[in-house]
Amino acid sequence: MFAPATYNKSSSRATSSQAHSHPQQLVTFTMATQSSKPIVLYTQTTANGVAVSILLEELKAIYGGPDYESVSMSIRNSDIGNVHNQVKSPWFLEINPNGRIPAITHNGFPVFETSAILLYLAQQFDSKRAFSHDPVADPQGYSKELQWLFFAHGGVGPMQGQANHFNLYAPEKLPYAINRYLNETRRLYSVLEARLEGREYIIDTYGLADIKTFPWVRRADVAGVSLSEFPRLKAWVERISARPAVQKGLGN
Ligand SMILES: N[C@@H](CCC(=O)N[C@@H](CS)C(=O)NCC(=O)O)C(=O)O
Description:
Strand 5 and strand 6 (109-112) form a beta hairpin. The protein has helices spanning 17-21, 47-63, 90-93, 114-125, 139-169, 175-195, 208-217, 220-223, 231-241, 244-249, and strands spanning 5-8, 26-29, 39-43, 68-72, 103-106, 109-112. The protein is an alpha+beta fold. It is globular. Belongs to the GST superfamily.
């Protein structure tokens, strides 16, 4: 079960002279888990983490795979140096140099950043494009997908993450910071609320943009936002929550 993992490391990242002369050689890293399953998901039950497990469960529901194994990672700073599966552990930094969850390996090939993982999984496994848009066959659909993924990845996630932090975890109550991130989260929600007028999902049919955004919006309460202010967004959360694969991806 536990064994060194290998993946094909490109010459641009290789460091030894031997690696430079043989850029395609397999470089061996010691990782926490080497699984018999093609995908290993390094994760936690946070908004970013569950976005990936939701897509994996949606893919399984339609295609029967890919099979995956989840590795529970500690994101607590107090575990650094004490716990093997901490996100700043050296072995994990080889998979995600940013030292955060989620990350995956696919037959040993590492991918980090939630939206990059969603796009990678769609490219590899969503052959019927049930949840995604083909960049060549449907360039405008793909562009919309990127636009709304970037909107959530660069906007909703970071702003709501800061709103959560200053609302709940900061050692001091800082009204300026609380209001700044709360108001920005509300503003982003109002963009989504407008987008959902006459639409059931962000890009008309359910897909990656919804999967990326939903885990944040469903926990609006943590940031101090009430979804009763955003009725279309509230109905969208209920619609997505009703999907069996979403419930599985959330661990329910
Ligand atoms: N932009 C990153 C954000 C990832 C992120 O912030 N992950 C958090 C949990 S949701 C984490 O691992 N925090 C641990 C830490 O900061 O040390 C992504 O979308 O993957």
